[in-house]
Structures are given as C-alpha cells and as structure tokens.
Design goal:
Strand 1, helix 1 and strand 2 (about 35-40) form a beta-alpha-beta unit. The chain is mainly alpha-helical. The protein starts with a strand and ends in a 5-residue tail after the last helix. The model has no long low-confidence stretch (mean pLDDT about 95). Helix 3 (about 55-70) packs across helix 13 and helix 4 (about 85-95) packs across helix 8 (about 130-140). The radius of gyration is 22 Å and the shape is globular. The longest helix has 29 residues, at about 295-325. The protein contains 14 helices and five strands. The protein has a three-stranded parallel beta sheet. The chain has a two-stranded parallel sheet with strand order 4-5. It has two domains: about 5-190 and about 295-325, HUPs (Rossmann fold); about 210-290, Tyrosyl-Transfer RNA Synthetase (Orthogonal Bundle).
C-alpha cells in the first residue's frame, strides 16, 4: 500500500517543552511510519526572532535532539532544516504573488500573536506573510496529512485556499489539499494555568532535571478557590489535576475525591504529580543526554534529511514554475 505523505514542522525558538511533546511530538511518533517529513522551521523562527540571530542555529540543534529524545526515529522519517532547502523560499515567493492580502490580514492567529508578543516589533512583511511560507512548506512535499494543534487550523485552511486558487488560475492539479491530524491533547496548561508557551515563561522543558521539574511543580497554580487546606476544591479547573488525568490515571478518581472534600492540601497533590511527571520524563532525559554527546551524528541525520527533502522539493518547484509559465 502507498504510504501517506505526512508533513509538519517546529520553530526553533528554544528547547522543546511538555506542550510541544504532548501537543505535537506524540502525534509525530504515531505517524513516523508513513512517508513523514518533520522540519525544523528556522525561517519561520526569523518572523519573530529576527533580532536574535546568534541563537537560531543553536536552537535548531536543541530541537533535533529533543526530536530524537522523544522517540522519533530518523530511520522511519525525515528530519531536515528549512533554510537548507532553498525551494521553501522560492515557492513561498511564487505563492505570495497569488495570495490576496485580505486573506493574511484576517488570519486570527496573526492578531493573537501581535497581542501575545506585543513587546516585539512584528509589523513586518515576513510576519504578515508567514502563512504563505507555511503553505509553501506543506505544498513542496505535497503533504496529505499535517499533524497540528488547534491554533494552526486557520493556517491549514489558508493553505487549502491557496491550493484552490492555484488550480483556478493555472488549471494544474499539482497539490493535494492537506488534512489536519489533531492531537489528543490539544492544549497543555503551563505553570500559571495559561497555555504552555515560551513567551509566557510558564514551561516545563524536556531538558529540565528532576529537581527543576519538582521545583516548578511546587510553584504551579492550582484551584484559586483553595486558599487553605480546609477549603474544598474544584479539580476540573486545576492545571495540576490535568496532569494527574494524563499521567496518573489509576489515581484520578481518588485525587478528585480528596480535592473536592479537602482531604489533603495542594502541595501534597503537586508532589504526587511531580513524581509521576518525572517518571514519564526520565527516559527522554536519558536519551537526550546520550544524543548531546553525538552531535556529529545528529548533523549527519540532518544532512541526509536535507538531501532527500531537496530531491522532492526541486521537482515540485519545477512543476509549479511550469504551471505558472516560468519554464517553457
């Protein structure tokens, strides 16, 4: 049977955190046996981190090592760095010629990011147009399935709209319309209860030590109604309880009962969860430490991935240029 072409990517803005693992990498692992391409999107990182030029390449290595530590296997899927396949920039430019400005301005994620990152100057052509680059990323590999979080669904719909417009203009059916593959954990809460995000500084990183994780969990937000141990709680609003449901299923009912009836305090509940979380992260830490000592091998994995990616991307770019009348 023909394998499904899978494509997704990660912006290298730092080490990956638990939200990345549960919201993306777990899906990647399930799909890596297909014809899967997982990209480290360093060009996308420039849309918000263009002033941090000294850290992007370093962050690329951190992301790849987190990929490997989380269980992704380069024998089963292809890793590569976006900027090492120049066809991404070329196709993005071509698609920008046919993408109406209004499509980009109405993008809800664009407005959300402007608010979330309002300390940065994001009034740039690159930031407004990054959904076009994202469409080019998927279209270059003729992606059929795209594992994404719910917040990326508007971008994927824009990709489909660009594909339809391309067909309308040039009558060439080059690109399949990609389908989203949503994670089972669409939103992972951070230490403050908001969505886990580097920009909120509320993350638990895959590289965190046992001691760092325990310290972070000790300070984690819980049900605000529980000001003392005697106050009865509401586990359904507590970020700590979210992790109990995920990592401590055999104790979920007991934890909920104890919280609702004020049978124990939040600190004890946090420490039980921290133990389970550390047990979950221990194998990832061990693999991460091992790969950190093999950076030459990691570089070889990326080189091999870029070679395979370029073979496919160059063919797609040529087909696109022919359809647009740029190649006779």
């Amino acid at each position: 049977m023909k394998k499904t072409r899978v494509f997704s990517g990660t912006r290298p803005t730092g080490k990956l955190h638990l939200g990345n693992l549960l919201g993306a990498l777990e899906n990647y692992k399930k799909l890596q046996g297909q014809d899967a391409f997982f990209m480290i999107a360093d060009l996308h990182a420039l849309t918000t981190e263009y002033e941090s030029k000294t850290t992007i390449a370093q962050n690329v290595m951190e992301v790849v090592i987190d990929y490997l530590a989380s269980g992704l296997d380069p024998e089963k899927c292809t890793f590569f760095v976006q900027s090492e396949v120049q066809e991404h920039a070329s196709l993005s430019l071509l698609l920008s010629m046919i993408t109406p400005l209004g499509w980009l301005e109405r993008n809800p994620t664009y407005k959300d990011q402007l608010q979330e990152l309002k300390g940065k100057d994001l009034n740039t052509h690159g930031f407004l147009g990054y959904p076009v680059l994202q469409a080019a990323d998927i279209m270059l590999y003729k992606g059929e399935k795209v594992p994404v979080g719910e917040d990326q669904l508007p971008h994927l719909e824009l990709t489909r709209e660009i594909i339809r417009r391309f067909f309308y203009l040039y009558k060439k059916n080059i690109f399949p319309e990609p389908e989203a593959v949503l994670t089972q954990v669409p939103k992972v809460p951070g230490l403050d209860g908001r969505k886990m995000s580097k920009s909120y500084n509320n993350c638990i990183y895959l590289a965190d030590s046992r001691e760092e994780v325990t310290k972070k969990i000790r300070g984690m937000m819980t049900d605000p109604a529980r000001k003392t141990k005697e106050d009865k709680g509401h586990p359904e609003v507590c970020p700590v309880f979210f992790y109990h449901k995920l990592l401590n299923p055999e104790r979920v009912e007991g934890v909920a009962h104890e919280c609702r009836n004020a049978l124990r305090g939040c600190v004890e509940c946090k420490m039980e969860m921290a133990t389970k979380l550390n047990e979950f992260l221990d194998p990832i830490r061990e693999r991460r430490e091992s790969w950190m000592k093999k950076k030459t091998e990691v570089r070889q994995i990326l080189d091999q991935g870029a070679k395979r990616a370029r073979e496919i991307a160059s063919q797609t770019l040529r087909e696109t240029m022919e359809a647009m009348g740029l190649v006779a």
